[in-house]
Amino acid sequence: MLFLGIDFGTSGARGIVINENEEIITQVNYLFSQQNSNNLANQWKNTLCLLLEKISIDIRKKIEAVSINGTSSTVLLCNSEGIPIEKPILYHESRDITVLDNFKTMIPNEHLVNSSTSSLVKLLWWYQTNKIQPDYYFLHQADWLGFLLHGKLGISDYHNALKLGYDLENLCYPDWLKALPINSVLPTVLPPGTPINTVSDDIIQRFNFPKHCQVCTGTTDSIAAFLASGINHPGEGVTSLGSTIVLKLLSYHRVEDIGSGIYSHRLGNLWLTGGASNTGGAVLKHFFTNEELKTISQKINISKRTKLDYYPLLKPGERFPINNPTLAPQLEPRPDNKVEFLQGLLESMAKIEALGYKKLQALGATPVTQIYTAGGGAKNETWAKIRQHYLQVPVHISPQTEAAYGTALLAKRSQNN
Question: Residue 9's pLDDT band (boundaries 50, 70, 90)?
């Protein structure tokens, strides 16, 4: 029995097939040939097919379940045949938030949907521009790609539907959302990894999938990357050390502080909460090359701390763990010694990371017990030791970090539902 997870990103797609022991059997990827923004949905469809073709027929014949992740708040408006009638709106593309003005008395003030890039704002923008018909469907990227495999329209998952306004506590659309004039196009929302339907006859004939192969609801790319870590105990966290530093903590309790960018995703009966700081690898690469980061880090004496106290930012503004849009970068004094300067940066970032987890706990999240690390910075052993000193819990490198692997795990777990 094999299970396929597909990750759709901004530049292409990746597929990973795992077996019952969660070992990777094969992985394939396909980059978008060109970014044709006028026919983006068709490009996604072609990429999906080309990705599947890259998996050998012998493997495809043994795949029991498939799940797909997409970028959060990347959305489409489709007709009753599933054909997009408007160009998809991507996750980072904003729409004028004044579309909410007509519904201010209905939409809660401190809600995640009050953002120019939320799924709901994009849907209301289509409504305001008279694009919506009663028999249309509003879908997220992962929803539509799944439809191409199973043929059932109007189904989403509660990870993708969070920024649409779905109520994760009660697992339903809240009354205020159902009262909006876009109610008719809202998708049915199921838990991520729920079997929807077997693959369509067209997919069976073209790709030799078994007739009983199930297509499941998907998730978002960031949640899939978290699932890849294999974490399943409250108190375990994942820190992604990329251009920025992103924290995710598995908790018994849901916590939110929308002003600081903190909100929680549901994971079964648990909650995945987190936030993102503007400090991180982008600051390090502003001052050091990749080779310098590697060689200079090895010269740091971690047993002797610096007295440097930085808040490393490239420009003013921070949301988490300090919510201050005008917070100024603090990068002085800057020693002539590059080793000392890098150590000061790494120590300061570790303090910010520790402060972030403390803030999550102060809001009610489960106390941290251990942390797994993803992203490019995970390979820096010196940074890991510095972080462990300030975090006061064990720090590990995540054994898997690919979002496609996390989505394959979701497909595998669907067989136990």
Answer: confident
Name the residue with tokens 């420009």.
315
Between CA 23 and CA 412 the distance in angstroms is 11
Q: Tell me the whole-structure pTM to 2 decimals.
A: 0.91
Query: What DSSP character marks residue 109?
Result: S
Integer angstrom CA distances of residue 148 from 15, 78, 308? 16, 12, 55
Asked if 286 and 342 touch (Cβ cutoff 8 Å), the reply is: no
> From CA 279, how far away is CA 263, in angstroms rounded?
19
What integer pLDDT is reported at residue 36 of this predicted model? 58
Residue 357: name the closest of 365, 345, 349 by CA.
365
Closest CA relative to residue 128, chosen from 83, 97, 170: 97
380: left (phi over 0), alpha (psi -120 to 50) or beta: beta
DSSP for 265-317? Answer: EEETTEEEEEEEES-SHHHHHHHS-HHHHHHHHTT--TTS------B--SSS-
> Quick check: helix, strand or coil at residue 90?
coil
Residue type, 256: E
372-394 pLDDT, tens digit each: 999 889 999 999 999 999 999 99
Residues in CB range of 353: below 8 A, 6 or more apart: 239, 245, 247, 277, 387, 390, 391
3-state secondary structure at position 91: coil
Residues in a beta bridge with 241: 245
Dump pLDDT digits (tens) for 98-112.
Answer: 988 888 889 988 888
| CA pair distance 305, 162, nearest whole angstrom | 42
344/337 Cα distance (integer angstroms): 11
